[in-house]
Amino acid sequence: MKNLLILGILVFAACLGSSCQDVTIGFLQTEDAGYNPDTMVVKKELDTTPPQLEEVDNPLYYELLAENLEYYTPELLISWGILPTQIIEVGAGEDYQRAQWGTPWVSNPIEGVDGTTQIYVSIKDIKTTTGNAEKMWEYLKVYGDGTFEVPLEHDIPIGRYLISLNFKNEGYSKDVNDCFTIIVK
Prior knowledge:
This protein has helices at about 1-20, 60-65, 75-80, 95-100, 135-140, and strands at about 30, 40, 50-55, 85-90, 105, 115, 120-130, 140, 150, 160-170, 170-185. It is α+β, with helices and mostly antiparallel strands.
């Protein structure tokens, strides 16, 4: 019994001693990293055609009247600000609202990156065969969740740009190559 106790203590000490190695803290996994969708189209020329105003029937007004005419009277609905007609904008250019608000071009965040926080992301490389990578470097931003942003006003040449990222945290650094495409047209 005494020998068994000594053997147990030696095994425990051996396990304890072998676990005291220089181990890198945390983890970083990027094997499944990707974007959905993995392409963003950025326009140089915006369609900012202003909308036309058009008066149309307000469907909510007529739905409430049809639901219960005894309770929902026209006077009650009008007092609530629900009018029989409404004015809507029609025929606006595809980029009218974006131009009005100065909204930048923004991608979805990257998916499939996991690790010990804080994870830092940076642009590793920008490749292009038809554009100007230096100009894209000048305007392109990447945020902590991998979201890309290109400002509305830019002078990036027309082309296809392939972006690679680098993710790092304490003790690890991994690249995700050619993970996103920006098409400037």
